[in-house]
Records
---
Amino acid sequence: MEKKFKFTNERIKALPANPPNAKGTDLEVSDTEVIGLKCLSGKSGSKRWLLRYTSQAGRKTSIAIGRFPDIDVTLARKIARKHLQQIAEGHDPKAERDEIKKIPTVSQFFWDIYLPLIKGKNKSWKLDQQRFEYFIGPAFGDMRFEEVTAAQVQQFQLGLKLRKRHGKPYTPATCNRILALLKTICAHAVRLGLVEVNQPAKIQLFRENNVRTRFLDLEESQALIKVARNYKKQTAGALVIMLLLTGCRSSELRFATYDNLDLDKRTLIIPPEQTKNKRGRVVYLTDLALETLALMPKVRGNPYIFPGEKKGRPICDIRFSFRAMLLQAGITDVENICIHTLRHTTASNMVSAGFSLNEVKAQLAHQSIQSSERYAKLSLRSIQNTSQKVSDLFQI
């Protein structure tokens, strides 16, 4: 058979396995486009890429590029040309790769390089740590990045979908957050030159179908505020009221400090590091908001407006208190409601009351009007009003 030809994916795919009785382990063919680029087909039919070259010291050597089809012809040529450029500049890519092999495993890379880096940039680094500990570490922790294949990542993703927590399977969104973290870790390894290809990036995320569309209507919101005012845990009750009144994210208010509160100007500054889009903003406080804040007990030595039980710390997760308040307010479908629903509620009721999308955008500090548009679609009352107006056009 022809041993030297222009590589294409179709021809490499059709390359036969090396015969079982062959003297050599692999059948080797050469590319006419990139000198030194080889494809080796083993006796099992598996195919791998290799670049043969002469080092600066005059020794003939080779460097593995990866397996087909994980790496296709186009990418194999790109990697080979990069190595040849390094050789022309006086560097030995294999020697450099041997040095790379001394670097950490996926687990060591995460703990020693990735995690310390994101601690100063990402507020949700603790979630990343948990996801790595429980899911990614056990699956890939002992491997080096070049050993991770797309097929393995695909199996890992499918395995996540089969796992259960409290008897219920993980949602597509949960699986996606875990896979997204693995993609991000590998992307950082690529940027540092530890691996050529981000294999997890080849795997598509699951389609998410668990987006909450529930929000509280005006009557439910008023009932919840009434309960929150008299709730036994005063701080939790006040936080719920302020979330409804401002449309802020829970973290924005939980970490708000007295240094950022100006009662004379009736404003609360949300600094950039506490916002999702890293842009600071001003929250203007109404009479009801000021009245709610006035009832808050100020704890000596605690800078937070909503103090927690731990000394010097803000209030923690209030999901259980929130659930209790919902039930007291006569709202029973608590499984469909979370703290973020309050932000959703503020926007949706604004639209129902006739506020413009630009006003919703300003109140919730959205970066684009598209973020505000989805709330208009969720307002049943708005849809009903629109339908009635259309009907009125044709009234006889």
---
Amino acid sequence: MSVTLPELVCPAGSLPALKMAVDRGADCVYCGLKDETNARNFSGLNFDTTSLREGIRYAHQHRRKVLLAINTYAQAGQSERWRHAVDQAAEFGVDAVILADMGLLAYAAQTHPHLRLHLSVQGSATNYEAINYCHERFGVVRAVLPRVLTLLQVEQVIRHTPVEIEVFGFGSLCVMVEGRCLLSSYVTGESPNTHGVCSPAKAVRWNQTPKGMQSRLNGMLIDQYADGENAGYPTLCKGRFDVHDEIYYALEEPTSLNVLSVLPDLLRIGVAAIKVEGRQRSPAYVGQVTQILRAALDACADDAGRYSVKPSWAAALNKVAEGQQATLGAYSRPWK
């Protein structure tokens, strides 16, 4: 039985990362502007008008697509900035915009009726009723599912919506349902849904102490690392805390989602796109992950019945996984 191969959607936090993704086999790249309109608003990342135009030109030259993430929520009195980002996307000729804000979806549908609209994972739509509403009301043609659904639940969504369904295939996991995180705003006063970053750089501090390297977020101790221990970027959800005299990852252990072993199932149920997380990661990371997933998808398409994960693929992805370990997350839930 022939299957339609999902698009491989890869992150681009910079122009070099965009070109790396295209060169290594991505079907689509997704990126954001250098402001609060995108959910990876890190200093030194993202695109200005010049680099975005060049990225679109390069991708289209290689017959690849560019998706622009405008996936934070417009703030009262500042909504013109978000609307202007949608206007720029249409003007520059991106292949789709990824939106979460219902007001922006309405604006895009009314102002740019030919602009392809994708519902961001930040929209937090976990059921087909919500997705169908966005399709009927705004003309959304693709939705990115939060990483909290089992394969059976994803299949149920696909069966009951005409909207293309995109799922995450590799990258950092989030303990929250995307679009509903309050942890960062609790500590820093700035939500990733409005300011575009879990841990604002201005709130991050590293201090060397006799006990080891400490990481703090707005003064709150998030973690402490022994000499030689790998130190991750401090986010509240992945810190280690003292709970009843035991220090451990109380909320979530650093690990990355990796769907290589269930690719045949994702193809069987009709997933339209598989997304790689990591716009904040390096071009080298983007290149390595893109190349491996491209090879795995092609191998699965050739013969899904005989497909198996090559040890070299798993080893390479584990090296760039958060905490150097991987999981199937909610895709593999032994209980019902």
